[in-house]
Amino acid sequence: MNAPGPPPQPPAAPPLLVVMGVTGSGKTTFGTALSRRLRVPYADADDFHGPANIAKMSAGIPLDDADRLPWLRAIGTWLAEHRAGGGVVACSALRRRYRDLIRERTPAVSFVHLHGDPEAVRRRVAARPDHFMPASLVTSQFQALEPLEPDEHGIVLDLDSPVETLVASYLAAASRTPSRR
């Protein structure tokens, strides 16, 4: 007769994630792949921008905090609406105060920061002519970037890694971290 094992663990709560990083870091590609793997909905923060923000960025003008406020709140609201089933959003979330705005509506959110070489990012952005964000804004994105702080829940991954490697790295890190809900 086999000895009973430990009681089965309840399934982990589906994660609420923001894939963050500068423009061209691969947030959409990785976020989409990760959401498929986790079987949770995906949203791209670009879809939350109003026409005025898109026009400003298309003209090569960086957004200011007043432009970003309703956008970040909408992202936080989307995550809050997906609290029960989980979700992944690709969003630059470059500054701590932006991440704090998202956390106001969704305290359990975790961040996956895709980070890497600025020149590699510039090349990526220059190679996608159909996107509204010009390569000229890459420098301002890196200047604005505030890395995750020790009290922020999240991990940093190398944006130059293949998508499958990034997904595996996230899953490995998540399996070592207790659920936040």
From TrEMBL:
The keyword Transferase belongs to this UniProt entry's keyword annotation: yes
EC id: 2.7.1.12
Catalyzed reactions: D-gluconate + ATP = 6-phospho-D-gluconate + ADP + H(+)
Alphabetized CDD domains for the sequence: GntK
Pfam families to which the protein is assigned, alphabetical: SKI
Keywords noted in UniProt: ATP-binding, Kinase, Nucleotide-binding, Transferase
InterPro entries per the UniProt record, alphabetical: P-loop_NTPase, Shikimate/glucono_kinase, Therm_gnt_kin
UniProt superkingdom: Bacteria
The keyword Secreted belongs to this UniProt entry's keyword annotation: no
TM helices/strands, residue ranges: none
Pathway it works in: Carbohydrate acid metabolism
Similarity comment text for this entry: Belongs to the gluconokinase GntK/GntV family.
Name of protein: Gluconokinase
Annotated organism of origin: Actinomadura vinacea
Lineage: Bacteria, Bacillati, Actinomycetota, Actinomycetes, Streptosporangiales
